[in-house]
Amino acid sequence: MKEDIVVKTFTRVATTAVALLLGGTFAASAGWLDGLFGGNAEDAFAQCRQGAVAGDIGGPFELVNAQGETVTDTDVITEPTLLYFGYTFCPDVCPFDVARNAEAIDILEQRGMSATPVFVSIDPERDTPEVVGDFADTFHDKMIGLTGSKEQVDVASKAYRTYYRAQEAEDEYYLVDHSTFTYLVLPEAGFVDYFRREVTPEQMADRVGCFVDAAS
């Protein structure tokens, strides 16, 4: 079952469509958040960052989990959390990013630290609670899959200043251009940092560990 989901994820879109995504997604992601981040002279986590960030990213959201239950950010973010916005029909970008995040969670566990990976769909039309649940479970048994109404997803996306836009298509196999950052959120501190796609699982685990230690 899980293997079938992975195969479907990688094969739903033709090669030409993948090329479109790579052009649109990375153009949207490259440097898109750079202008949003500024310095903070009293940043308690400064030693953990590779760049300065502002404290106005993140915030309350209300989404739907795999069981069809409405949950809030406080229900979901109960420990250090790696938050990613994507969609299950994504042909290659999302699966690789989500797998990287899952591997970082395992590395942290080996180091004695517990963290949660969260996947938020920005494609609620296709990503039902069951679909996001199966997708999340494919990558990690701790991963939480979230979806919701378009309005709910918009609120969460705006809170984290993510970008997404569905491409026009004549069938259900449309692509969605979207930003590809992973956000580190702590229960008490909220959003503290973000990770680009090129960050490795080990590098991610190192930085998450730094934030956890600094917060304790």
From TrEMBL:
Keywords: Copper, Disulfide bond, Metal-binding
Organism: Sagittula marina
Disulfide bonding pattern of the chain: C90-C94
Binding site for Cu cation: C90, C94, H178
GO MF entries: metal ion binding
InterPro entries to which the protein is assigned, alphabetical: SCO1/SenC (IPR003782), Thioredoxin-like_sf (IPR036249)
Top-level taxon of the source organism: Bacteria
Name of the protein: Protein SCO1/2
Signal peptide: none
Family: Belongs to the SCO1/2 family.
One Pfam family this sequence matches: SCO1-SenC
